[in-house]
Write a structure and sequence with these properties.
The protein has about 230 residues and is of the alpha/beta class. It folds into 2 domains: about 10-100, Methionine synthase domain (Methyltransferase, Methionine Synthase (B12-binding Domains), Chain A, domain 1, Orthogonal Bundle), CATH 1.10.1240.10; about 110-230, 3-Layer(aba) Sandwich (Rossmann fold). The protein contains 10 helices and 7 strands. A 5-stranded parallel sheet has the order 4-3-5-6-7, sandwiched between helices. α9 (about 195-205) links the parallel β6 and β7. α1 (about 25-35) crosses α3 (about 55-75). The longest helix is centred in the N-terminal third of the chain and has 22 residues, at about 55-75. The structure holds cobalamin. Cobalamin binds next to α3, α4, α5, β5 and α10. Cobalamin (B12) binds near residues 67, 85, 163 and 193.
Length: about 230
Amino acid sequence: MRRDGGDELTGTAMLGADLPVDVLALRAELTDAFRHLDEGRAEDVLDQCFDAMPLEDALRDVVVPLMHGVGDDWASGAFSVAQEHFATHVVRGRLTMLSRGWSRGDGPVAWLACPPGELHDLPLFPFGIVLHQRGWRIRFFGAHTPVHDLLAVARVSPPDLVVLAATTPHRFAARRWELTLLAQAAPLAVAGEGATWHFAEAVGAELLAGDPVTAAQGVALRRSRSAVEEPA
Ligand code: B12
């Protein structure tokens, strides 16, 4: 059983007293819509999912594992490259919609980017959306961002947090020196499959482990705790 009363084995999330949402069924339905290149059906299921569940739960329990599953299907040959690109396009559209206005407000500022060569910027969306829900302002740089450009701006006007995500360790390793300098200019965190505790420690960064939603919740919580402990 999960702490929200849902059940991991059946994939059922309980909302309120008796409103079960079958997240496994939603993911299966979405995957099937992508398989048939049926954008209308995929949008309908996404609507259903975001209507039935709190935003952060929908991102964590449906969208993130959905994309992971699409990758597994692609790797096993069950999905073609075209189907995988189609799914990515639909999900990216929805995440872009949900990210609208995330730079507004007066809370702490987070920069989100991928290092050079890295194209997987999709996971930065749920991370940024959740952080914005909790009062942060997001500056999104996305895929393949030159670290020296981030460094130049961070030295003049440092954000409260820079998050870099990559799927393979060599994308970080290739920028080791620049990342060390960036970590000296602003608080830096590394994330994604390519981020290791060892590398984070070596460059003076924090490792954000786990999925993007839970990690963003943790970042926001730690920030609000430290604000209580050290009032301005
Ligand atoms: C969509 C996608 C693409 C899109 C990217 C679109 C975009 N703008 O992001 C495109 C089509 C461009 C693409 C390209 C490629 N891709 Co691709 N892609 C995917 C796919 C299907 C989904 C990625 C995603 O959004 N996942 C959602 C995230 C949240 O889930 P996750 O990756 O499992 O991440 C977990 C953790 O690492 C963590 N996490 C991940 N990112 C972040 C970020 C933050 C801030 C935090 C806190 C946590 C976190 O959260 C997750 C849950 O724990 C994955 C499959 C997969 N397993 O994810 C493959 C996958 C990542 N791709 C893969 C590959 C091989 C490629 C290509 C090399 C294919 C090719 N031959 O061209 C290229 C590489 C391009 C490049 N230079 O970067 C492999 C990577 C294997 C590896 N580690 O080397 C994967 C795993 C597919 C597979 N099963 O083999 N891809």
